[in-house]
Design brief:
Layout lengths: L1 H4 L9 E4 L4 H17 L8 H18 L2 E12 L2 E6 L14 H10 L5 E5 L3 E3 L12 H11 L7 E6 L7 H7 L12 E5 L8 E8 L3 E3 L4 E10 L5 E8 L2 E9 L5 E8 L5 E8 L13 E9 L3 E7 L4 H12 L3 E6 L5 H4 L15 H4 L9 E5 L11 H13 L3 E5 L30 E2 L6 E2 L15 H10 L6 E2 L9 E10 L5 E10 L2 E6 L6 H8 L5 H15 L7 E5 L3 E3 L3 E8 L11 E8 L2 E8 L5 E7 L4 E10 L5 E12 L12 H10 L3 E3 L14 E11 L5 H19 L4
Parallel strand pairs: 3-4, 3-6, 6-7, 7-34, 9-15, 16-17, 16-18, 18-19, 19-25, 27-33
Antiparallel strand pairs: 1-2, 2-35, 4-5, 8-10, 10-13, 11-12, 11-14, 14-15, 20-22, 21-23, 23-24, 24-25, 26-28, 28-31, 29-30, 29-32, 32-33
Helix pairs in contact: 2-3, 3-15, 12-13
Length: about 750
């Protein structure tokens, strides 16, 4: 009863604290004094008891309003806590030889440590045991640092980590590369428990495909496929490599005692662009994770420099101007031959030491070395005087080179086209004009070439970004000196410049500048040898040589087909997406001046393992069309986009690639990393517990924590206070009533 009246036990050794602001009791005292003054208006005689009780109630009320609190403080020492960290990543779902998953084993071991604080970790630290093992990453270093932060200032009895050691947060890599690297400091002795046994389940995996991500066109590069096998009797593994789903080679990886091996592939790219290389190993019966038997990497093939072979039949102003332009361009690697030694020179009885001209290595250039060039320019070159042997084969090599992705430009003159005896040869089959003219093969009359409708939209003849200004520039340029005649365009070719008066047999204007796409390659025919005048005469008129330079820069850029220099570009942010995820494909549509084309009609053809699908979209105000693709089939996907301007003018095509994979990065390699866990325990001065070993955590029995207790008892809230107030005020009122006062 006494404790209840006093509001609990107010023990000894406490301190009285007044918790209310000083103005509160002052206000209460002022109001109370006013009440007593009113009560005393009838005089004080015989009223001492009444007013005394009222004054006592006032004193008690003032004291209560001051917020008296009885504060008792103390401290006690509790035993140090044991913290358990359970790996919740997806690698813990792998089932061991007994059929139980690593996660189940970890939870069972955690449950055996009664009273411990349990946390789960994957890509972050969370309180409580894991409900599901679905984390996409394992960051053990981050988890240890998180525990140190949560228990800052407290010495723990111990920290137990339950994991398979497949850390992907950086700690594992650091300890592997530098065993002396520091590890996160934890506030207690560390026990590292390996969950899962090495070799308990057979698993063959492609651990990595290394190649740098970039390669240069026609320059060999190496892809190294790293293979890992656990629980397998294999001593070697066949490795298959695909490029965009097509076979690119096979190799064998010899496995060492740890089950690791490397298969190397030396590849020579023949096209620029982005390509997906996919390495795979066989799936054995009972393979723990078949999805990690395949790994894809995207490689961007670029040009180091544009490699050009220029072959001229004789010196000329046209040859001199073009050669000088190519030599001064730092992005061009030029190999040039002119003033050549013919077979007649060799057979004229001269000693080789008496000849100043070098021998033309035509056989090597047009056979084994032809594929090393991005562009071949035949400038007023007749092959017959130089090709002493195998002329048909060498000309066929040039035609095949074009069809397989090379570029060929033939420039006119008195030794070119029909005058160079190309009619009926394999080279004639890839040129954009028909050869085989009967009668005169040239017209020496000067003429002003006309820009065709196709030329007005083509990037080669875009001397200005403004169509009207571009047309005016072509009309202003100096006339050409003469023309190599032809029978007109070949099917599929396009004329960019035409003759103002002469016509082809079909009645169309005779082509002066024509282009064609042949197979994977491109060809150009300039039916004259005086384009140098566009530089010389323009400069003489005070307008500089930009028309000439821009024309040939445009021609080279179009001929070699560099994806980054095309009006249409395909951009895919991610080179690899998971099965069922979305890949965002962005197509940039630009005109010949590389300005955005709003409203461009874009057709995107998606070629996946299951066939082709087509999407049609309209470009936004920035000339960008976006297609979202759901990767519903595993493998390489190639994207080809074709854009057309609002007026129907073709802008160009472009392509890129990405891959859809079923491979989970968390399951790339599933064999537990015993070496890492042992190294971690050693670096932290802790204990390593292997699979099947009895778990006895390393503990610091002297560890503990000081828990400070603070007990506050409000004296104003004691039931005794209102009881005394009621008694005092009630007694005063009764005495007042007995005297007949109100």
């Amino acid at each position: 009863m006494t404790d209840w009246l006093l509001g609990g036990c107010c023990g000894a050794g406490g301190t009285l604290v007044w918790s209310a602001s000083s103005w509160v009791p002052a206000a209460v005292a002022g109001c109370g004094a006013g009440v007593i003054a009113l009560a005393a208006r009838g005089g004080l005689r015989g009223r001492a008891a009444e007013l005394g009780l009222l004054a006592g109630a006032l004193v008690l009320l003032v004291a209560a309003s001051a917020g008296p609190v009885w504060v008792q403080e103390g401290a006690r020492t509790e035993e140090g806590r044991l913290v358990v960290l359970v790996d919740s990543s997806r690698s813990m779902t792998v089932r061991e030889g007994d059929g139980r998953s690593r996660g189940d084993e970890a939870l069972a071991r955690a449950a055996s440590l009664a009273g411990a604080d349990v946390y789960s970790f994957g890509d972050g630290l969370r309180s409580g045991a894991p409900v599901a093992f679905t984390a996409g990453d394992t960051d053990l270093g981050g988890a240890l640092a998180g525990i140190a932060q949560r228990y800052a200032g407290e010495r723990l009895r111990g920290v137990v980590v339950l994991t398979d050691g497949l850390d992907r947060g950086g700690l594992r890599r650091r300890l592997s590369e530098s065993p002396g690297s520091p590890v996160p400091a934890v506030p207690g002795p560390l026990t590292v428990v390996q969950v899962g046994a090495v070799g308990a389940r057979a698993d063959l995996a492609v651990a990595d495909v290394r190649g740098g991500g970039f390669a240069f066109l026609r320059a060999p590069f190496t892809l190294e496929v790293q293979v890992e096998a656990t629980g397998s009797a294999r001593r070697s593994v066949p490795v298959t490599l695909l490029r965009d789903g097509q076979p690119a080679g096979t190799a064998t990886a010899s496995l060492d005692a740890q089950g690791r091996g490397v298969a190397s592939f030396t590849l020579t790219p023949d096209q620029v662009g982005r390509f997906v290389y996919e390495a795979s190993v066989p799936v054995d019966e009972g393979d723990a994770v078949p999805a990690n038997n395949v790994l894809a990497r995207a490689v961007q093939v670029v040009r180091d420099r544009v490699r050009i072979l220029q072959v001229c039949g004789s010196p000329s102003w046209d040859q001199k101007f073009l050669r000088l332009f190519l030599k001064e361009d730092p992005s061009v690697d030029l190999v040039s031959f002119f003033i050549l030694r013919t077979q007649a020179d060799m057979g004229a009885g001269w000693d080789p030491d008496e000849l100043s001209l070098i021998q033309f290595p035509y056989e090597r250039l047009f056979s084994s070395e032809l594929g090393t060039f991005d562009l071949v320019i035949l400038q007023n070159f007749d092959y017959a005087p130089y090709f002493d042997r195998d002329a048909d084969e060498l000309l066929a090599n040039m035609a095949r080179y074009v069809r397989e992705g090379g570029a060929l430009a033939m420039v006119g003159g008195d030794r070119s086209f029909d005058l160079g005896r190309y009619a009926g040869t394999p080279v004639a089959e890839v040129l954009p004009v028909e050869l085989g003219v009967t009668g005169d093969a040239t017209d020496a009359t000067a003429f002003q070439p006309r820009l065709t409708a196709g030329g007005a939209r083509h990037p080669i003849t875009a001397l200005s970004g403004d169509p009207a200004e571009n047309a005016a520039t072509w009309e202003r340029l100096v006339p050409l000196d003469g023309l190599n005649l032809s029978r007109g365009l070949r099917p599929g070719a396009a004329a960019l410049l035409s003759h103002p008066g002469r016509t082809s047999p079909d009645g169309s204007p005779l082509p002066v500048l024509a282009v064609a796409e042949v197979g994977k390659g491109r060809t150009l025919a300039l039916m004259g040898d005086s384009s140098w005048r566009w530089s010389f005469d323009e400069a003489g008129g005070g307008r500089g040589n930009q028309a000439y330079l821009r024309f040939w820069k445009n021609a080279i850029r179009w001929l070699v087909g560099d994806p980054g220099d095309q009006p249409v570009v395909v951009e895919i942010a991610r080179e690899s997406v998971q099965l069922g995820e979305e890949a965002r494909v962005r197509v940039r549509a630009r005109d010949t001046a590389f300005q955005p084309v709003p409203g461009a009609q874009v057709e995107v053809v998606l070629r996946g393992p299951g066939g082709d699908r087509t999407e049609r979209v309209v470009a936004d105000s920035d000339g960008v069309a976006t297609v979202v693709v759901t990767g519903d089939q595993r493998g390489a996907w190639r994207v080809r986009a074709t854009a057309v301007g609002p007026g129907g003018a073709p802008l160009g095509t472009a392509s890129s690639a990405f891959t859809v994979t079923t491979r989970d990065p968390e399951l790339d390699v599933v064999a537990p990393d015993s070496a890492f866990l042992r190294a971690l325990a050693a670096r932290a001065g802790g204990r390593y517990v292997g699979p099947g070993e009895v778990l006895v955590p390393l503990e610091d029995r002297d560890a503990g924590r000081v828990v400070r207790d603070r007990r506050e008892t409000s004296l104003a809230a004691m039931p005794l206070v209102p009881a005394l107030l009621l008694a005092a005020t009630g007694g005063s009122w009764l005495l007042r009533r007995r005297r007949g006062l109100r």
